[in-house]
């Protein structure tokens, strides 16, 4: 059995930069603002299982979610389902790219929409916050645990 290498912050940053360029036609720039610890926003989770098992999480603000979705769909009017699909797809591409950069064999689950709390996302490394249209987008890799359920 191959033991997978765990992702670190530099790998997560490199993957996010690549996804932002290829998928969103934008540079991945660090978010420089501050968010309160009780911040919650729309997001998505996805599980990775296998030699490397983890849960990846993405969250942003309502404004960021709408902006990102409008960019991906090339439209002005978006529904809640559109937002859930767009955030899930961005997370799916990030998670798939990260998984592909690691050794071993792992599988991605389906992205699940939800509302995410900053304190939950940033509780374990690696995690980072990048900017999309002036809004924060938080991404984190957390160890998979049986007690944490996917929404």
TrEMBL record:
Q: Could you name the domain of life of the organism this protein comes from?
A: Bacteria
A GO BP entry? chemotaxis
Q: Which UniProt keywords apply?
A: Chemotaxis
Under the heading Gene3D superfamilies, the entry gives: CheC-like (3.40.1550.10)
Q: Which residues form the Chemotaxis phosphatase CheX-like domain?
A: 44-116
**InterPro entries hit by this protein:** CheC-like_sf (IPR028976), CheX-like_dom (IPR028051)
Q: Which organism is it from?
A: Nocardioides seonyuensis
**Lineage, top ranks:** Bacteria, Bacillati, Actinomycetota, Actinomycetes, Propionibacteriales
* Protein name per its UniProtKB record: Chemotaxis phosphatase CheX-like domain-containing protein
């Amino acid at each position: 059995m191959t033991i997978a290498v765990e992702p670190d912050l530099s790998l997560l940053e490199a993957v996010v930069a690549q996804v932002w360029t290829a998928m969103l036609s934008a540079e991945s720039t660090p978010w420089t603002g501050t968010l309160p610890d009780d911040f919650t926003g729309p997001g998505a989770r996805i599980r990775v299982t296998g030699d490397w098992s983890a849960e990846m999480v993405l969250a942003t603000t309502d404004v960021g979610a709408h902006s990102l979705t409008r960019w991906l769909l090339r439209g002005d009017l978006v529904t809640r389902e559109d937002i859930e699909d767009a955030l899930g797809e961005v997370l799916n591409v990030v998670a798939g790219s990260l998984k592909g950069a690691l050794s071993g064999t792992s599988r991605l689950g389906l992205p699940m929409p939800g509302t995410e709390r900053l304190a939950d996302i940033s509780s374990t490394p690696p995690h980072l916050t990048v900017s999309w249209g002036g809004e924060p987008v938080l991404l984190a890799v957390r160890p998979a645990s049986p007690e944490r359920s996917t929404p």
